[in-house]
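Tokens as discussed.
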């Protein structure tokens, strides 16, 4: 009888630990909003430290290889894009990569930017910083 009680208590303990660990240590997600439509941003790379847990994701493929796997979002010229994050970051820095892989820093005001006036394919790299770490998100758009 003691064995059964110990086994049940041990099982409950393991389940409780597993469920609290899986929810407690996740990096924040990010999304973008264009014309009132929400799109998730892909988490490309991160370094995150919360309590006694340190997590890192270092991608094996380049940012361009990963972007090729993403679904292009078709947008109109000069569309407004607004960022939304699960947890509010301390700062964000945005880089735009054009078809020739030319890198440009994009002005972001109040988590919003204006997409290009020129047609073409653009990939964006969004570096968001929190007290716990930094996450790089990526997404791509096709301006028509």
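Sequence:
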């Amino acid at each position: 009888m003691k064995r059964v009680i110990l086994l049940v208590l041990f099982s409950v303990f393991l389940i409780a630990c597993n469920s609290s660990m899986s929810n407690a240590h996740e990096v924040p997600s990010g999304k973008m909003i264009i014309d009132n439509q929400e799109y998730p941003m892909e988490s490309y790379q991160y370094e995150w430290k919360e309590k006694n847990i340190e997590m890192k994701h270092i991608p094996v493929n380049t940012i361009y290889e990963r972007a090729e796997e993403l679904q292009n979002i078709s947008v109109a010229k000069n569309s407004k894009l607004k960022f939304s994050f699960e947890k509010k970051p301390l700062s964000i820095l945005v880089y735009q990569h054009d078809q020739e892989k030319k890198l440009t820093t994009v002005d972001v005001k109040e988590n919003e930017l204006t997409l290009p006036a020129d047609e073409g394919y653009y990939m964006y790299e969004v570096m968001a910083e929190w007290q716990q770490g930094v996450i790089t998100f990526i997404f791509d758009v096709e301006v028509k």
